[in-house]
Amino acid sequence: MSQAEHSSEDRARFERDVIPQLGQLYPAALRMTRNPTDAEDLVQETSVKAYAAFQQFTPGTNLRAWLNRILTTTFINVYRKRRREPQQALGGDLQEWQMSADRLAPPVPSAEAEALDRTTDSDLLRALRDLPGEFRTAVYLADIEGYPYREIAEMMGTPVGTVMSRLHRGRKKIREQLMAGGLRTPQAESSGA
Asked: pLDDT of 3-13, one tens digit each?
C-alpha cells in the first residue's frame, strides 16, 4: 500500500470514527476551562493532535477514552504553559493576583500585572503595528477581535498549530518591545514626556 493510499484511508477512518466523537468532548472541555471559547479551542486542539497521532490508535480499543486522554493532556499542557507566562494585557477580566488562595489577605499584584497596568493603549498599538505581518494578523484576530484559533486558521489559510505558534511568538515580541521601550505611563504621555 502506498503512502498516499494509507493517508487517505486514515483520513476516511478519522472522519468516520473520530469526528462524531468530538461533540461529546465539549462538555468535558467546558468543565475544564470554564469558558465556552476556550473549551471550543481545546476541542479543536484535541482534534488536531488526534489527527496527527491517529496512526498510533489501535482499532478496536476505546476511542472515546483515547480522545479524552488527549483532551486532558492538552488541557494540562496549556494550563502549565499559561502559568509560566506573564498575564496578557488583552483578555480575561480577573488577573492572577486577584484569584489569591488566601481570600482574607489583601491582593498583591505581580510585577507583570503592575507593568501591564502602566502600559497605555498607544504603547500596545505601536507594538502591535511593529510586528511582522503574519504575527500582527494572528494577534489582532485573536486578542482584539476575539476569534477562536480554528476560525483564524481558516481566515489565514494555515493550520491551527501555525496560528498558535504565531500568537505565541507575536505576543512574546510585543512583551519584549514593551519591556525594552520602558513602558510609558498614562501620566508621562499626558505631560508630553
From this structure: 444 578 878 88
